Amino acid sequence: MFAAAVVFELFIPDCHTLKQKRAVVRPMVDGLQRRFKVSAAEIGMQDKWQRADIGVAVISGTEGHVLEVLGEVERFVWSFPEVQVMDQRRSWMEE
User: Cα separation of 48 and 76, whole Å?
Assistant: First the structure.
């Protein structure tokens, strides 16, 4: 079994309220869950209206599949023009 996680630190410059932030972050998290069948959630900066931390976890039977899914997840997050990815970190889970 192979498991990995990626955390994205996002900056959302056009948001001026938490409601506006939610309108950007929610479709991203829902899209990640629906399209890639991964576990995804906003994991930090919930009280900041222009910042968000999104965490995504992937588990698979092969390392290659985990890497493939993580690559697709990264491209998906980077495709949102309304957000700027400030940082992203991958980590592998040990058995």
Answer: 23
